[in-house]
Write a sequence for this structure.
């Protein structure tokens, strides 16, 4: 039972990370299309 709970927590964490990555990729695409090279460079260092 404990293993199933931990497994679900890991799945949830992975889902949140994937969502965060998608959000950051979208933000980066908006910055690139807006022609903000310094901001894009700063984000690429993260």
């Amino acid at each position: 039972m404990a293993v199933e709970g931990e497994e679900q927590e890991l799945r949830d964490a992975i889902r949140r990370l994937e969502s965060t990555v998608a959000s950051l990729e979208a933000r980066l695409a908006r910055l690139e299309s807006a022609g903000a090279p310094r901001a894009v460079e700063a984000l690429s260092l993260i």
